[in-house]
Amino acid sequence: MSRIGKMPITIPKGVKVELNSNKIKVSGERGILERNIHSDIQVKIEEDKIYVSRPSDSKFHRSIHGLSRSLINNLVKGVFSGFEKTLEIQGVGYRAALEGEKMVIQIGYSHPINVDPPKGIEFEVEKQKIIKVKGIDKQLVGETAAKIRLLRKPEPYKGKGIRYIDEVVRRKVGKTGAK
């Protein structure tokens, strides 16, 4: 049995879970999320726990069992505490600033880049170098952070660019002088 799939999901106080056939709807203080779960996966709600089970031990059912449990768990965590990704800008003259909801980034191009947040995402900028992407949908937070990072990926020689705060960029040695 799946080690992840068999673990129950604890529903925190203030979070409400509704189940209609294969659609699960989770609402909390931060918002409402809903997701379709595969029709073969059984989801049971008992008191303050959610149990996910599969009908057989076929390879397909085993593969979607843990996935379904993780997706439901992310819905519950998202509406209760939310998700956050932190990016760091490195480079001389590279900076970010908020203008209302949108973010303006200057990263060495001839023009500043405007980034509009998708619905449900908000940006925070600290000290012009640290960008925080916050939201309740884990997939959307990660996707938005990845798109921002793609604007200027960290390069291996000087390390300039946008990187995740915990990302390690392997540095390369530059040219050596002719002797």
The name of the CATH architecture of the largest domain is Alpha-Beta Complex
Structural class: alpha+beta
Stretches with pLDDT under 50, minimum 5 residues: none
Measured on Cα atoms, how large is the radius of gyration?
21 Å
Strand order of the largest sheet: 11-12-7-13
The name CATH uses for the topology of the largest domain is: Outer Surface Protein A, domain 3
* Total strand segments: 13
| Rough outline | elongated
- Roughly what is the average pLDDT, rounded to an integer? 90
Helix content class = 10-25%
Question: What does the model show?
Answer:
This protein has helices at about 60-80, 140-150; strands spanning about 10, 15-20, 25, 30-35, 40-45, 50-55, 85-90, 95-100, 100-105, 115, 120-125, 130-135, 160-165. The chain has about 180 residues and is α+β, with helices and mostly antiparallel strands. The strands form four sheets. Strands 11-12-7-13 form a four-stranded antiparallel beta sheet, covered by helices on one side. Strands 1-6-5 form a three-stranded antiparallel beta sheet, covered by helices on one side. A three-stranded antiparallel beta sheet has the order 2-3-4, covered by helices on one side.
